[in-house]
Design brief:
The structure is a single chain. By secondary structure, the protein is of the alpha+beta class. The chain has one domain. About 20% of the residues lie in helices and about 30% in strands. It is built from 1 helix and 4 strands; from the N terminus they run E-E-E-E-H. Strands 1-2-3-4 form a 4-stranded antiparallel β-sheet. Strand 3 and strand 4 form a beta hairpin. The longest helix has 12 residues. It is globular and about 40 Å long. The model has no long low-confidence stretch (mean pLDDT about 90).
Length: about 70
């Protein structure tokens, strides 16, 4: 039996041409996959808990200094 394909989702804030897209997907085992649309063969795997902590940090502005 083959694994079901991951349904990748990108932010509505990504560039219209697809050049600025980070995509997320949930694997069958519950892990979260992260990839860049322009290099889809490179995939980072993380847990729901780690992604939730990262998103909380983004919302709190902890990474804003990386954008300047």
């Amino acid at each position: 039996m083959s694994a079901s394909p991951i349904e990748w989702q990108k932010s509505s804030f990504s560039g219209g041409g697809g050049e600025n897209c980070v995509e997320l997907g949930k694997a069958r085992d519950g892990t979260i996959k992260v990839r860049e649309s322009d290099d889809p063969n490179v995939v980072v795997t993380t847990s729901h808990e780690k992604l939730a902590a990262f998103i909380a940090g983004v919302k709190a502005g902890e990474f804003d200094h990386l954008l300047s």
